Amino acid sequence: MFLGEYELRIDHKGRVAIPAKFRDAFRAGLVLSRGFDKCLNVYTVGEWERAAEELVSLPTTQLNPRRLARFTFSGAFDLEPDRQGRIILPPALRQYASINDEVVMIGSYTHLQIWAKDLWAAEKQFVAEHAAEIAEAVEI
């Protein structure tokens, strides 16, 4: 279970360190992909396989599932953390998520998300201001 919020810096080689408490979960590797909200998703291999199976089970005869699959799989990279628990953020993903030198890595229960610091601040503020309306609109 991935929880919390961690402010981190990108080094000159484009690497970011996974918080120490999560490193064991990613020892076997990880998948880094585009998120829908201009952020990056960090999945364990097992969680990526589950999410990918869900996606590929959608009907390929429909345009939106095909587009969603293209968006997801073309922007996904399988990576292995180095000995210090760092991963390289590919330039295309850094550009997509407007990531420069400071990021916030947040827990999203089944995976982590990496946000540009300013985009996360804006998202967090929006959600804080509209939490009641958002919760009310969610159908469970």
Question: What layout of secondary structure does this protein have?
Answer:
Blueprint: E1 5-9, E2 15-17, E3 30-34, E4 40-44, H1 45-56, H2 63-74, E5 77-79, E6 86-88, H3 91-96, E7 102-107, E8 112-116, H4 117-137
Antiparallel strand pairs: 1-7, 2-6, 3-4, 3-5, 4-8, 7-8
Walk me through the structure.
It is a single chain. By secondary structure, the chain is α+β, with helices and mostly antiparallel strands. It has a single domain (5-137), classed as 3-Layer(aba) Sandwich (Chemotaxis protein chec). 36% of the residues lie in helices and 25% in strands. It is built from 4 helices and 8 strands. The strands form 2 sheets. The protein has a 6-stranded antiparallel beta sheet. Strands 2-6 form a two-stranded antiparallel sheet. Strand 3 (30-34) and strand 4 (40-44) form a beta hairpin. The two termini are 21 Å apart.
Features:
single chain; alpha+beta; Chemotaxis protein chec; 6-stranded antiparallel β-sheet; two-stranded antiparallel sheet; 4 helices; 8 strands
